[in-house]
Amino acid sequence: MRQDTRLSRLLHVLLHMAQTDAPMTSQQIADMLGSNAVVVRRIMAGLRDGGYVEAERGHGGGWRITRGTEEITVLDVYRSLGSPDLFAFGFSNPRPSCLVEQSVNETIAESIDTATSAILEKFSTLRLSQIEAEVRERMQKT
């Protein structure tokens, strides 16, 4: 199963963007992430729609962060991705007639709901500025 790395990638990009006043082109971001500029534009669109970044066209254009890192939470970035599933677990039969399978499905669904709520609550309290401060600490140690 392939992991969805978009959240960590977008956080990475936003923190780099916050460190510069210069716009970053989709190609620069793609090079940084080892990705493709088309993919970058696609995932940046959600951030743009949420008002966290803007895109300037033409020579000298690119993506700019439009809010301070203290204003953006990990939950904001997660939602800009369309709130993808946090867990890959699923049911072989979502509406089973077997009572055992019904109980298994209900137990798994309740556990996933509880874990999802806890993660989203944590995401809502984590600001990019906190990650930025950790980056500064790591840089001072090197």
UniProtKB/TrEMBL annotation:
GO terms for cellular component: cytosol. Gene3D superfamilies: Winged helix-like DNA-binding domain superfamily/Winged helix DNA-binding domain. It comes from the Bacteria. Keywords: DNA-binding. GO terms for molecular function: DNA binding; DNA-binding transcription factor activity. The keyword DNA-binding applies. This is DNA-binding transcriptional regulator, IscR family.
